[in-house]
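Appendix B, example 12.
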Amino acid sequence: MHRILLLLLAVSFHSFAGERSGNGGDVITCPESIELLDSFEARANHLHIILKNKTMDGVLEEVLPRIEKIDSFTSRIIRQHISRLRDDVASFDATGVSNQPTTLFTEHELVNIDDSAHFQLPSGCQIEQLIIHSSSSYSLEKPFIINARLWKMLSPEQKALSLLHEGWYIFLRAYGYENSRLARYLNGVFASSSHSEYTQHMFNQDLRSIHHRPINVLDQTEVFSVEEN
């Protein structure tokens, strides 16, 4: 048997304490289009999202290795946290069954979670709530609720980026981030052509930038150990 050191960040979907409402992923809906807030902000920041793959799984497997090159642990945690959500949305897309193991697809409009801290929107467009991830769910509740109407309107690329957004937000939430601005920024960086210019040093600086204390994802003072056979 040997020990693997894992960051305290390795939390489960149900590990956050708090009220029923948690974080949410947003889309921008315009008269002729719909996209993630992440994608719009990336474009506004001159980050050009150019992805070769045209399927949801293909985009995920194109972006996750980019994160792994910067920090393999971060990539592993994001992959872990979106794995069940990934299965649920694939099943919904294939079958239309709304009640999935960890996700409820609803025909109702979702209440806006005011955690985006966004600065701008395209003229004539509005923010709508796509996904809510519950901070604390009861035994028979689903940790994820997705607006089925909006989900069906998204391209496979945007669906993949919405899952990555949730992974980033869960990752950052463990460090105490209370809005999704950095999650959206990192999502845009790794989905864009600028990912090749992004370094481990930049990543650590960005993690420190809006936090009340310095952090380092490789800081061995913030790890715990688990046994692996």
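Residues 1-21, 212-229 have pLDDT under 50 and may be disordered. The chain has one domain: 11-210.
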